[in-house]
Structure formats: C-alpha cells, structure tokens
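TEACHING EXERCISE
Course module: macromolecular assemblies
Task: Read the component lines below, then compare them to the predicted structure of the full complex.
Student: A.B.
Group: 4
Components provided:
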Amino acid sequence: MAKPMEQIKWQELEVGSVVVEVGNALEYETGTWRSEKPVVNKTQCIKCGVCWLFCPDACIVKAPEGHFEANLTYCKGCGICAKECPVGCITMTGEEE
Amino acid sequence: MDRFSVFSSRLVDKSENFTSGHRACQGCAEALAVRHVMKALGRDTIVAMSTGCMEIISSPLPLTAWKVPWIHNAFENSAAVISGCEAGMKAMMRKGIIPQKKINFVAMGGDGATADIGMGPLSGALERGHDMVYICYDNEAYMNTGIQRSSSTPFGASTTTSPAGKDSMGQHTQKKNMPQIAVAHDIPYVATACPSFPFDLIEKVKKAAEMPGAAYVHILSVCPTGWRIQPQDAIKYGRLAIDSCVFPLYEVVNGEYRLTYTPYRKLPVTEYLKGQGRFRHLTDKEIQLIQDKVDRDYQKILKRCEEGR
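Instructor-supplied answer key:
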C-alpha cells in the first residue's frame, strides 16, 4: 500500500516524482463514496455486457455464472448501469449502516 | 483494419489500461471516454496529458490509474511534448537502441487545454505532421477548477464566470468549432466521437492511431457536475446531443467527410437542453436561436459529406 502523500518524506520520492508502480490507484477504494449500490437480478440478466461497457469506474466484472456484477470496492454508485440496462435488471438500493 | 461488423460488448478488449480507483466524480463520462480510448489503443502507447480534470483524478502523486507510460504536462504543451517523444523514439529506433515497434503516441487534453491555452502548440504539432493522435475531451467548460467558461462553452450555458441572471443569459458567444480548425490543417484524420456510442469511438481511435501522420479526435464527454444533471443521466445526455444534431458524429479522412451516425429521428434541441441545469434559464427566443444555429451547422456538415461522395 502506497502511503498517503502527507506521510511520504522527500527522501522516499523517486527523482522527478516518478511513480514506478503501474496502476496502483487500485489501492484507493472509491467504494466508500457510495450512498446507493447496484443490485443485479440474476434471473433477469441477459448477459449482454452493456453495464460493463458503460461503467466509468471499470468496476463491473463478469461473475462465473455469466452475469455481470459490480465490484463494490470501487463502485461509486452513479447508477449508469441501472439506467442503461436494456432489461432493467439492475436496481439501485440504499446503503445501510 | 479490423472493423466491428457486429456490435457486441464481447468483442471489446477486456484489459483495463485505465484502472478503477481513479477519483472522477460519480457518472463521469470523461473517465468513461478515457477507458474506451485506452481499450482501443492497448499497451504500446505513450500518453502525454495536459492539466485538467483527467490529469488530477488519475494521478494524485503516490498513485496512478494508468498502466501505460504517462507524462504530466502543463496546460499548453502536451502536443509539443508528444512531438518530442515521437521524434526521440523514432531516432532511437533508427539507431538500433530500441527494437522497431509500432508505438501509439497520444496527447490528451480537455477543451480548455485544446481550444484555449494549448491551441498554438497543437497547431504546430499538427502542421509538422508527427505520427501522433491528439484527443480532446470536451466537457464544455473548465470543470476542474470550478466550471469557468472556456471558448468551447456553448451559447446560453450558465457557468460561474458567465452566470445567468437578470442582465445576462449565460455564455453569449458561440462554441469554437475545434474539429473544423483541425480539418483546416489538412491532416489525414479528424473525427468527432462520444462515449455514449462506444463502438464508434473505439473504431475511430483505432483508425486515428493507424493512420500515418497526425490525427485529431474530438470527444464530447458529458460532465454531470458542470452540466447540472443527475450522474446516471450522463450517457443519456451524450446520446441526446447526437440525436438532436448539436454534436454530429463525423470523420474526415484526407479531407473527405463522412457522417458515421445519422439520427433515426432528428430531435429538437429542447430535448437536449431541458433537464440540464446550465440551460434552465433559457427563454423560447434563445432556444430558437440555438435551434437555428444547430440546423445551419448540421446542413453544412451534410453538404460537405455529399460533396465527398
């Protein structure tokens, strides 16, 4: 886990502040921003992948059974998948404490 | 070139070169556009990015959402930096320091970096004819710093520096037609795209990367925060912009125009304007002005497409 910026000393930075690790934004969990989460009705899903194609956070993954599910670690709960689903099998439900 | 003959999400590249964990707002269509662009380009890509939304959300210092070499630039010089990268890599390949390989050189910028601040270096890079692709993410204002107007802001839009009120109707100048400026440079490929039409976008970016010489792709990316719409409507408004011909999808290959998408039924601009908070104050008179301008511009594009045939 990369340390937050305020805990990094200047000696630890690479020359020119180069980030040497690729794609390490995965360590930042944007799922904590969410107030609503998408819930997929597995029997209704036609496995077309439209939700996967339109997710701005690339958080929708194909489940082993073939339908698509949101990875709640990164899902920001924008609701695009629920809006764009051609069969309407995704509903946004409120997060509970 | 492999063209999509069947539109199926299964044919789209599964690898993500722009990963999750970036800090875009909910429903950011610009992040979606970057994701589609990176799917089209693949791993052998060098990206130079101007300051803007996409730059700050994807690379807060210890973290990066990119899986390709990526260079941070000031607002104005991404086109100049990628020109240097291209020339340098070409020289190293010629001298045998690195193996011969097809590498995509991509400069990216927002509409402020493209149409306002970085216009000179971009014009220079297009004129010199480097083998590069310039991609402009047009969200129609400086969204990163708090929705200030840019020269790409459309007529009538309310922003924080062109606010609507008693004595003002928002932005009072017309949107700068950046794709036409790129066409005027006589470059091999210019296209307009929108992430609401992902197959079209991916195809155009692939084509732009394969064309020798400079290419320019202008992508309309809906910004729910700045356009004052709900995050889940981001894709819908992109689609409405194209169906109402506010932003026609076309490509210009070696000067020949081709319309890549014709709306099934041309919608009136009110369909696109209503529901957007930034156009909420417009009266019928101003909407008529916008409609006339949209019709005139669309007829111009149609005429050029006819001539190309």
